[in-house]
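Q: Here's a chain of 209 amino acids. Please give me its 3D structure as tokens.
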Amino acid sequence: MSCRNFHLPFSKCSQIALFLLAVSAASGATAASPSQLAIEAEALARQGNMPEAMERMQQAADALWDLQQFKIIETRLLNDGEPQPTAVLKSGEVLSVSALLAGYGYQGSAEALSVAIAVDVDIRHGSGRVLASMKDFASVLQTVPGRVAEFSIEMNLTTPALLDGDYEAAFTLRDLASGQSAQFTQAFTIDGILEAVPGQSEENGQSSQ
């Protein structure tokens, strides 16, 4: 898992203020809206009070962040930590994927913020039939040194007993702070068996319960 600090450069204050004003108007924001904070930051900067101006602009950036929806920016299929285009696995091998997230909420106090994400997963046959479902398959509770713009998690799924064929893993990521969720799927192909996996059935693509 990793994260990057969220800092908005203080430049061209008027343009930023106008942008934040448009965003706030569209969202219906009122008290302590990003636009109000940005305008205050610009006024402080014009007065030569740059420390407070920078602090106020950071508050504007934080308020703008709060308007975002929880979402997945991008996903990557991994092999030993390195990106790869496709996944051809043996039954019993590990499917590794990472997801870069934005728009999540925070738990804890301002002095000790944390990001909490829970993950559910469905394994589907190429036909779309659900073969297995795992709620709370993975979870992350990560303390961060402040608000961060992006947060990534890596998920490692040991493939169950599956016959050769095409499948997909459907991941649902739940932001525990905001109650929002986002989904993505990752296709993979099973070609052979890593080792004897008990419970494999005769029907193609089906693992017995």
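Q: Can you summarize the key feature?
A: The first helix runs from residue 13 to 27.
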